[in-house]
Amino acid sequence: MKKTRKDSKKKDTIQKNNRSAVIKEGIKKRKPQLLFLITVAILMMCYYAITGTDVFSKSFLPAYLSVVATVTSAALSLIGFSNYTSGTVVSSQAFSMNIAYGCDALEPTFLFIVVVLAFPAQWKKKIIGIVGGVLILYSINIIRLITLFLTGIYKREYFELMHIEIWQALFIFLALILFVLWVSIAERTTVREKV
């Protein structure tokens, strides 16, 4: 009976060691992916910590939203829609739209920046990707705000649907597509550089 207890303890120890080895090997194989996810998580926590401060919410955000409203207003004027801005509100005789937190595209833009920073690539490619991506996402957000304003003028009953259901999901999807495109371009140029 003593032998069987020792044998079963040995088997348990061997199984535990095997499980530990398998886990360690799995972590080792997935180290780049785990490092990427950890980096993204840490940087996004930093983003949320910054956006939760008074400096952000009382100083930076109102100024930034005012700029977004001004650019949206200018773009609407360029395409022939008479409008004016007052702080973060873009108005016409037919419709007014307040550009508030969440309409700024900061979160998906920062997420794009974070995943580019966390991805293993050369810094030159990361900087080009970030600058290009931010400009593209900012432009898409202005297009989004213009379409929302026009929806408010012509089909007001669809404004909330466009604002909440369609554009929010579409914007996040476009940010992810932009990241995938950047990765494919960065990897393609890396392959060309090696050849």
What does this structure look like?
Strand 2 (89-91) and strand 3 (96-98) form a beta hairpin. Helix content is 79%, strand content 5%. It contains 6 helices and 3 strands. It has a 3-stranded antiparallel beta sheet, with helices on one face. The model has no long low-confidence stretch (mean pLDDT 88). Helix 2 (31-51) runs antiparallel to helix 4 (106-118), helix 3 crosses helix 5 (123-154) and helix 4 (106-118) runs antiparallel to helix 5 (123-154). The protein is elongated. It has 195 residues and is mainly alpha-helical.
SSE ordering: HHHEEEHHH
Count of helix runs: 6
Instruction: Give the N-to-C terminal Cα separation.
Output: 67 Å
Low-pLDDT stretches are none
Short description:
The chain is mainly α and about 200 residues long. The chain contains six helices and three strands, in the order αααβββααα.
Q: What's the structural blueprint in terms of helices and strands?
A:
Blueprint: H1 2-29, H2 31-51, H3 54-78, E1 84-86, E2 89-91, E3 96-98, H4 106-118, H5 123-154, H6 159-194
Antiparallel strand pairs: 1-2, 2-3
Which features characterize this protein?
195 residues, mainly alpha, three-stranded antiparallel beta sheet, 6 helices, 3 strands, 5% strand
